Amino acid sequence: MATEQDRTWTVDTEPRDKSIEDIDLHEIRGQPVVKFVTAFLIGAVFFLVPVPYNGELTVPFDIVVSTITGTFPNAVGVYALSIIVAGGVLTTLATVGDGEFAGYDLSYFETSTAFWLLRLAGIVVAPLMFFKLGPAWLHTPGTGGLMWGTLVYSVGVIIPIGAVFITIFVELGGLEFVGTLARPIMRPLFKIPGRAALDSLASWVGSYSVGLYVTRNVFEQGGYNKRDVFTIATCFSTVSIGFVGVVAATLDILQLFPVVFGAYFLCVIITAAILVRVPPISTTPQEYITEPDPETAFSGSLSEYIRLALSEAVQKADEGESFLEAAKRGFVDGLKLTMLILGTILTVGLAATLLSANTPIFDILGKPLTPVIAALGIPNAETVAPATIVGITEMYVPVLLVTETALKAKFFIAVLAVSQLIFFSSVGPMTMDMFSDVPIRFRDLVAMFVMRTIILIPLIAGMTHAAAALGLLG
After folding, report:
1. β pairing state of 287-288 and 51-53
2. Are 105 and 99 spatial neighbours (Cβ–Cβ below 8 Å)?
3. How far is the C-alpha of 2 from the C-alpha of 6, rounded, in Å?
4. Which of 157, 213, 292, 441 is the most buried (most CB within 10 A)?
5. Contact, 156 vs 15, CB < 8 A?
6. Which of 450, 38, 118 lies closest to 275, judged by CA?
7. Which element (helix H / strand E) includes 133?
8. How far apart are CA 18 and CA 89, in angstroms?
9. Whole-model pTM?
10. pLDDT value for 65
């Protein structure tokens, strides 16, 4: 039962769990089964199947993005510049025309005054970065070079390409299949629908950008309420497996990759299970922005869950659009989303990295943590303490600070940096801009970063000593 109030909907009561006998399973016919299986395999191969590339194992998604950004950097630069300018202009026209301009519906680009100004700032900053104008400190590898040549280029390419394959996967049954099988874990442990497992999976194997795209897509279709979105965006928009490898390689501990990744995986699970039960997540209203489409309440055996998952997936594939229609819509939606967020990412991210590189603020903030880090038995506490705080600007910066430290310190920061999740070079502004209707505010993200860090520091210190005791740290 749903009620409409001020353009939001709420589900009044939790439905009673159904058994497999209570559910009218969809007829399993050849054509929709083939359609679902094909879409599932396309998504799985593109995002999940490891293949050798340049002497390393990676996934086709990473190869495609790396090839485009590495082979055509000038073209990607022109594209990024055009996207940022278009986003700023369309936001301005939407604001001036109250969501409409010259007969065109531009309501998608409406936003708050703060984000309008950030997108306008993007119009100014993007040409400076593209043409390398202004002072040299603006373009150093750790500030403007990182933001423009790495993050902006990557996010600009990742979202539309990832959206094509994710849309095919989601719209042709993959979301229902994965979501149904994940319900017994996701709902009791994290208080979110089973379908949220797909958002997390997209982040693990692809990019947090793709994961957030999935979340936005399902949110707009009534599959998530605002609390679900807050949880997923702040607890499951994870660093990809590939980037964990980059962090390990930077610290010269690639041989410890399985240990680093295992610790990271546990950190994400533990922090999520805690944070969903306290404010600000627990006090976020369980409102929907459209007619709710909650998952079918169900309880059964593993084989019954598989039967239900297949039934739901085949029904979605049977009723869904064609591969070409899904791919086209995904690409267009991805481009629109990129226009929405890329200017914000550039302006906020550049400010954050410049603050980190050119002021002592994070050294000052980290100083009180030095005795805490030392008491936990982590070496090089004076260097490690600021690194625990500076990750709020960009996840890679803490890693660069500890390249000359002891092995335990490297392992500690490697796991911490990728587990904090919230940073303002990308995820922070992207989340606030994409989900302004939740709303997820700046102070909420800062609070989440602080709470994650408080939980993670002793947790990872314990993991570090356990790994050392087991002889895994040499």
Report:
1. unpaired
2. yes
3. 13
4. 213
5. no
6. 450
7. none
8. 50
9. 0.80
10. 86
Identify each DSSP E strand in 275-426 by its residue range.
287-288
Among candidate residues 424, 425, 430, the one with its CA nearest the CA of residue 449? 424
CA distances from 29 to 25, 321, 325, 329 (A): 12, 17, 22, 26
The full DSSP string for 195-241 is THHHHHHHHHHT-HHHHHHHHHHHHHTTS--HHHHHHHHHHS-PPPH
Phi-psi region of 377 (alpha: psi -120 to 50; beta: other; left: phi over 0): left
Helix (H, G, I), strand (E, B) or coil at 105: strand
**Residues 6 or more apart in contact with residue 356 via CB below 8 angstroms:** 362, 390, 393, 394, 397
- The first and second tokens of residue 264, run together, are 């990271």
β-strands 100-101, 104-105 pairing: antiparallel
Q: Which residue has the tokens 């070496």?
A: 379
What is the secondary structure of 328-348 as a DSSP string? HHHHHHHHHHHHHHHHHHHHH
From the number of C-beta atoms within 10 Å of its C-beta (0-12, 13-18, 19+), residue 136 rates as exposed
Strands (E), 228-374: 287-288
Q: What are the average pLDDT values for consecutive 10-residue runs of the chain, which has 474 residues? A: 57 70 84 94 84 80 88 96 96 88 85 88 96 93 88 87 87 87 91 91 80 92 95 92 79 86 95 97 95 84 91 90 92 90 88 87 91 97 94 85 92 96 87 90 96 98 96 84
